[in-house]
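Journal club prep — side note

Before the paper discussion, L.F. wants everyone to see what a predicted structure for a comparable chain looks like in token form. Sequence:
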Amino acid sequence: MKALKIIAILIGIYVGLVVAFESLLGYFQPQGEENLVLISQDGEGNTYNRVLTRIELDDKVYVAVNHWPRAWYNRIKDHPDVQVTFAGTTTDNVAVPVTDTAEADTVRAARPTSLMFRVLTGFPPRYFVRLDPAQTGS
């Protein structure tokens, strides 16, 4: 019985650390040379900014869904027309969730995550979104 209590306490501490790490990361949204700002909207026209790491591969741009908090990901699945600001330039894009396993595996291999990162984020499933340039009017 004592062993179960210790295990439950350790699990609680671990969950607390993951929540704290994810919350601080979401609050501070670190920015660097590889980061972009994804600007999305919900069905009511509210605008949201999310700082994400840019993954460029084979002349395509991707972002990874690496964390449990993923409201932005659910929002772009419903409203894929987004704007992306990178290196001071804002462009219109269409956010396309990567559903092809081979494409996802290629991106995953190009940008692996460390074991420490996976531990700190609570081992969330990892998905990718391709940011395709929006088609201009005819």
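L.F.'s comment for the group: The beta strands are 35-41, 47-53, 55-57, 60-65, 81-86, 89-97, 127-133. Keep this in mind when we get to the figures.
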